[in-house]
From TrEMBL:
GO terms for molecular function: hydrolase activity; peroxidase activity. Pfam families: Abhydrolase_1. Keywords: Hydrolase, Oxidoreductase, Peroxidase. Residues 26-264 form the AB hydrolase-1 domain. It comes from the Bacteria. Belongs to the AB hydrolase superfamily. Bacterial non-heme haloperoxidase / perhydrolase family. This is Alpha/beta hydrolase.
Length: 277
């Protein structure tokens, strides 16, 4: 529907594709890896029917946005978001991030404050800090992420197949909460993304957000599945109470990573209740 230029790489611009629909108070939906803005279909319709203006966009490297080989870090991702919000001149925005998108929400609020932002929602959160270090023993061993990068380089489509199996907990929910056709649609979206972004985004997952979280001064809703195999519940969501001042925390029992697709009734109810307060 539209695009905004956020930078340049050599002879070409770096453009972010966005969709802007409806009227009312704006809600910006920020997608997860390895999908794009179209992955919000189960939330977009509900929000539009509730009277919100809904903006989705494709992160650089994914969907219809440019596929540069630079800027695959959260400072840049948050700046891309700021350019989009400034371009649309959006007031009183509700930011909703899923998975990688929760990093944009967190870094944006820490760097740019709440001048435009009313509330924030984190679905399947990546903060506070995913990497295991001496002062972060709850994290995940770096060897896991090195293995992911090796798998992406070796056979990216094969890696996406394994990733999406855990994204939806296919062994639990295929045929009930995730159809083979919906799974295949996500697989195609993943493969159409930039191969370089698929590799470099893994480094962004290791971002330390612990200093960002106390700077968030808007109400935040956190929704996370307790069977998340991508961003394990104990290493992520369970650690956020106490790190964010005004936090509402909802656990989806049996929920995999992509709870927005597998458990939309529960997620959408919590989302609307929070945004309509």
């Amino acid at each position: 529907m539209g695009k905004v230029t956020v930078g340049r790489e050599n002879s070409d611009t770096i453009d972010i594709h966005f969709e802007d629909h409806g009227s009312g108070r704006p809600v910006v939906l920020i997608h997860g890896y390895p999908l794009n803005g179209a992955s919000w279909e189960k939330q977009q319709r509900v929000l539009l029917d509730a009277g919100f203006r809904v903006i989705t966009y494709d992160r650089r490297g994914w969907g219809k946005s440019s596929q540069p080989t630079q800027g695959h870090d959260y400072d840049t991702f948050a700046h891309d978001l700021k350019i989009l919000l400034d371009h649309l001149d959006l007031p009183e925005v509700d930011l909703v991030g899923f998975s990688m998108g929760t990093g944009e929400v967190t870094r944006y609020l820490a760097k740019y404050g709440n001048d435009r932002i009313r509330r924030a929602v984190l679905l399947g959160a990546i903060p506070p800090f995913l990497l295991k270090t001496a002062d972060n023993p709850e994290g995940v061993d770096k060897s896991v992420f090195d293995g992911i990068k090796e798998a992406v380089v070796h056979d990216r489509p094969a890696y996406f197949r394994k990733f999406l199996d855990d994204f939806f907990n296919v062994d639990m929910y295929e045929g009930t909460r995730i159809s083979r056709e919906a799974y295949q649609n996500c697989f195609i979206a993943a493969c159409l993304g930039s191969s370089y972004s698929a590799y470099k985004c893994v480094d962004a997952w290791l971002e330390d957000f612990r200093d960002d979280l106390p700077k968030i001064d808007v109400p935040v809703l956190l929704v996370h599945g307790d069977q998340d195999r991508i961003l394990p519940y104990a290493s992520t969501a369970a650690r956020l109470p106490g790190l964010i001042k005004d936090l509402t925390f909802v656990t989806i029992e049996g929920g995999p990573h992509n709870i927005g697709w597998t458990h939309p009734e529960e997620v959408n109810k919590e989302l609307l209740d929070f945004l309509e307060r």
